Amino acid sequence: MTHVITLELPEDYRRKGQDLVAVSFFHADDHVADDIEGVDELLAGTVPTPEQAADPFLAAVAATAAARHPRQQDLEDVIGGAHALIWLTAAEFAAPRMDPPADIRPDGLGDKYSRGQNAWDDSAPEITVWIGARTGDPNTGIAPAEDGEGGYVEAWSSDDKDLDAFWSSVEGISHLGGTVMPCQTLPEGLTPYVFELEDGVGGVNFGGGNAQIDLESGVFDWAQ
To answer: pTM for this structure?
Structure first.
């Protein structure tokens, strides 16, 4: 998987415990990847066959499955793309950054092990992101909902000039909480603690849209 972003959270957004101070989000284009015989079995913990055990890539898959992070939340979108959210302690967040594991894909197999975005073929320099204040949002502290439920004001639904100016100013900007701006339908089950991530951040491809990752309910969706 490709690492997309790691974000230190304000205290109110540490929904899995105050000792879990940050989240890391990962992405993989599984929806365009070829099925590789043996991978599903290895991820399920099945003992590999001698042929599978001799394949360095499949052996690494088995080792990765065994070393799964204890606070990893697997996320899958409607087209079969794989994502993961990992909650981090302060010590994990402060630890030195690490490169992906060594590329051990066998030579001479074309793109058998490289279809879609992945950490080996799609790397970019690390950049720092900052959380800034988002003033003027009418939905601060309110769960996103349709038809004004709970007092939520949907983006672009008002003729108020100040709100129109606010929505224009924040369009295309990733954020925590407040007004979400999905390009299609509003996902169900969102809470005030939603993280909206825009297309292109960390190289992730949401088809020109954005993702809603709820840090309270676990809801995950994206719309192009």
So the answer is: 0.84
